[in-house]
């Protein structure tokens, strides 16, 4: 059963049980945080760009980023026992976000060639 709340048990689970787990958890949190901030800023900037080619280039980069995040979860986060139950759900989320960008690319491609 997953621990919910802000108790000592939850805090100890988020720290990791070994130094290797602690390093992977901190690296993963930093990577995800930087990616979210970076994508948020870029989305705001791209929203004002009218160039379809640039928007397609940006969407391809977002697909790549989500695929890389899913790969990170498969190769590193699944090895951490505290995250063992969460990583499959997060991979599904990463794949869903990547597919939303793929649908955007397909829609733009159809508009271009229809």
UniProtKB/TrEMBL annotation:
The chain crosses the membrane at residues 30-50, 57-75, 87-106. It comes from the Eukaryota. Keywords: Membrane, Transmembrane, Transmembrane helix. Coiled coil: none annotated. Residues 2-102 form the DUF7865 domain. It holds the Pfam family DUF7865. Signal peptide: none annotated. InterPro entries: DUF7865. This is DUF7865 domain-containing protein. It comes from Adiantum capillus-veneris.
């Amino acid at each position: 059963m997953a621990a919910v709340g802000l108790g000592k048990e939850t805090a100890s689970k988020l720290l990791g049980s070994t130094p290797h787990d602690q390093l992977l958890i901190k690296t993963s949190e930093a990577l995800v945080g930087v990616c979210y901030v970076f994508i948020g800023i870029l989305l705001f900037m791209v929203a004002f760009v009218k160039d379809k080619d640039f928007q397609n280039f940006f969407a391809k980069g977002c697909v790549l980023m989500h695929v890389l995040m899913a790969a990170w979860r498969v190769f590193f986060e699944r090895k951490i026992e505290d995250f063992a139950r969460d990583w499959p759900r997060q991979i599904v989320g990463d794949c869903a976000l990547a597919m939303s960008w793929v649908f955007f690319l397909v829609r733009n491609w159809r508009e271009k060639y229809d």
